Amino acid sequence: MPKLIHELQSPDVTALKPKVIAAEIEEIARGRRHFQQLLRENRDLLNKPGDYVDFTYRYGTPIFSKVATKLTEVSWYTVGYSSVRITVDKWGGKLQFAREDLEAATRDVLAESLFEAGLDYAEQVDTECKLALMKSVTSTYGSYPAQGSTLVTLPTGTQLLEVIAVTGSTTAWSSADYYTGKVELGATADSGFYATIEFRHSQLPSTQFRNAYSTGNFAFRDLQSLRDAISSQNYHPTTAVLHPESITTLLRDTEAKFLDASAYKAEGLLNGEIGKAGGLRLLDSTRQYPHLGLGIDPDHAGRFVIKKTLESTRRDMPWIYGLEYELWGFFKPGVIKPEAVAVVVNVGGTGASW
After folding, report:
1. CA distances from 271 to 53, 242, 275 (A)
2. ∠ at Cα 46 (44, 50), nearest 5°?
3. If I label 301, which of 79, 127, 146, 195 is the partner at 20 to 30 A Cα–Cα?
4. Torsion angle, alpha carbons of 340, 345, 347, 348, to 10
């Protein structure tokens, strides 16, 4: 529960300063973000001009090589530089309070409102970080399914993450094969019908997008697949984020040799960390897709660029005898090294295979 509100010296909560409101919400949200903690924070823009940061990295052949014979000139090697630009977004929220509620009740009225605001802030920011780590983009696709068929295959190469909505002759879908990009639509009376599918898909390299070993179950082999995808790119995976349903099936896999977090809590646990398996720290998050597992090297994968931490302004509303607090934050998560991230799909949830 919130602490700052109850630590105030003044009994008049209507005199609460906006910066305390913002600090309270930020404090509540911080401990409930599972995906954001996997991105390194960048504060180069904090309270400074500009709204983007360019992250430069080297690519090309190795600079050094072994020279086999004496007096042999070393060869030139091509070294190039590229960059990833992360441009911050502006996020806003608003809270309103009736003054009579604050004056007649205890501070718990305000504390509960801020607690709920903090939970919502954590949800929105963490979901944004989740989508950024998977390099998710949103697209639509329309198709006439063949007569008597309700199966739609998305364009070749689609690495499906989520079916957002289906519109047209039918508005329902029953299952999907996320690896092959096939979506099974709901039944319709039309023999030939048109459907438009709105979906999220990943732009990670194809080498980092893996299929489950066994559809509908997250097995230890899938954990190994995440590790292999990242390790083969010369990065060091340390963490995996799974939905509770996937965690349950993994725990039933005798090969996993799961180690409960209580056995090593002195190391300092991440938010949502429940244990280790296969050398990876396992985070449990209901924000994760039930049909998907995420592996990551947090040291190299991405950044969380902050231009302005959450701040608040207060406005008195005498015409309704109320108070209003507006909240603003400027930030953006982004992936710098997509090869330091891996995804395995069809591990549970509504996964199907044809």
Report:
1. 27, 13, 11
2. 75
3. 79
4. 120
**pLDDT (tens digit, 9 = 90+) per residue, 146-181?**
655 678 899 999 999 999 998 887 777 888 999 999
**Nearest partner of 114 among 33, 25, 50, judged by Cα:** 25
How far is 146 from 141, CA to CA, in rounded Å? 15
Provide the token pair at 3: 């602490």
Q: What are phi and psi of 110, to 5 degrees?
A: -70, -40
Tell the burial category of 31 from Cβ atoms under 10 Å away from its Cβ (0-12, 13-18, 19+): exposed
To 5 degrees, how large is the angle CA 41–CA 43–CA 48? 160
What's this model's pTM, rounded to 2 decimal places?
0.85
Q: Which residues contact residue 300 at a Cβ distance below 8 angstroms, ignoring those fewer than 6 apart?
A: 235, 336, 337, 340
Instruction: Concatenate the DSSP letters of all residues of 210-222 into one string.
Output: EE-SBTTB--HHH
DSSP 299-325: TTSEEEEEEEEEEEEEEEETTTTEEEE
Q: d(Cα 287, Cα 340) in Å, to the nearest integer?
A: 21
Residue type, 74: V
